[in-house]
Amino acid sequence: MSFPTPFEIPFDTSLLLIGGEWRSATTGATLMLGNPSDGSDLAPIARGAAADIDAAVAAAQAALDGPWGRCTAAERGRVLGTMSRKVLENVDLLAHLEALDVGKPLKQGRADAVALARYLEFYGGAADKVHGATLPFQAGFTALTLREPHGVTGHIVPWNYPMQIVGRSVGAALAMGNACVLKPAEEACLTVLAFARIALDCGLPAGALNVVTGLGEEAGAALAAHPQVRHISFTGSVATGALVQAAAAKNAVPVTLELGGKSPQIVFADADLDAALPSLVNAGIQNAGQTCSAASRVLVERAVFVEVRERMAERYRALRVGAALGDPDIGPVISQRQQRVVEHYLAMARDSGLRIAAQAVLPPDLPAGGHYVAPTLFDDVPADHALAQQEIFGPVQVLIAFDGEAQALALANGTAFGLVAGVWTRDGARQMRMAHALKCGQVFVNNYGAGGGVELPFGGVKLSGHGREKGFEALYGFSTLKTVAMFHG
Ligand code: NAD
Predict the structure, then answer these.
(1) Is 202 a catalytic residue?
(2) Which atom of ligand 1 sits closest to the CA of residue 338?
């Protein structure tokens, strides 16, 4: 489907969703979203704050005490299924909104919308298939476990993949019968607001999903610290994750933290390089590198290092950078602030004499004011350099040469993060050894990312966070277990 140019956003973006009603922030204040492709003002959003979070939490609790709380698991599953189909009908609209708001190429926005639909389908189907157990116990007793919702759940979402992250966390939380208060990032809210409209159209009862836009330090902090919120799911930076965890700890509230990484792809000399090559580049710079599981480090066994470098370099030189609605390979980064962060790392690399293996060329006709950075591949970077250790969140990858399996493992595990890792080798025994020894939440063998893998539990260790989303595992995280021991003699 194509949309007229200029594309008009088909709803009022400046409203919060509380208890099934669209309303302004209590203070009436708004913030302005920007278009990363040209730096222009895009649309106002409500600047929700503590009073709005209070209202949203109260509305969520009322939904739990009312129609939403009385829904059977099968009914919840059916609503999620309807939402999934409605999202699929709106893939093009959602992709256009994401292009304007996040600077995401249309094909990536479409993929995110399809992933959102798939999460809703998966969790809709799973809603009535999660159950407790009967336990062998002492004579005269029947003992069993009941799996129950936490109650009101808080969802703090970043700007890089709003649709996918809402799908995996809100989808699972609703399936288990929780009522959600969702705080999207102040940089990008449009697809979250559109999704909430879709949910209401599909018959999701009022208050089961509430959306409060606003600043992290206002609305986000109020949600994390709210005493009636019983679970928090957070995706974003390490520093903010620590604040959220500390705030929730005061109320003894469990937190799932997904905080990004510095994930490696490890290429052994026996790997099928033809199969690996597209993934070595794409998984590093997709979404302009703003992906928590971006493969920002490429570790290559020395015997094939030059070949891998040259073949990756060729791909870099062919990358098309441009405005998101033109559906380029790489769009802008989200904001001027993020652009400066990436440029800071590029300057640091220059100052320390790192060699550039390849850099994409920025076309001269890019829209002025857009937040563009040239995708850059660095050649054999020292493993302790900041570019090889820190999450840049831009289209920057580092190559690192290694000799043998032990060194590959030491390098792969040698950062403060542990989100995912990819291993490329034909040696089956080595595949298993690496899978066991890598310190991270997901290992991909002869692939990277498994196409998103809605069914596959996802999350990190070390500074990449804790708790698991996606797959069935998320349903356990978004519920609590009650044990019942009945004495009947
Ligand atoms: P951030 O952690 O500041 O923001 C993520 C979310 O947290 C947003 O919704 C924000 O409004 C909210 N937030 C901010 N301050 C808060 C607070 N005090 N209490 C509660 N919520 C709060 O991330 P950012 O500023 O958008 O990005 C900074 C860095 O974080 C990036 O450069 C990147 O390294 C990392 N990041 C990681 C991911 C990921 O998927 N792991 C996503 C986005 C950003």
Answers:
(1) no
(2) 32
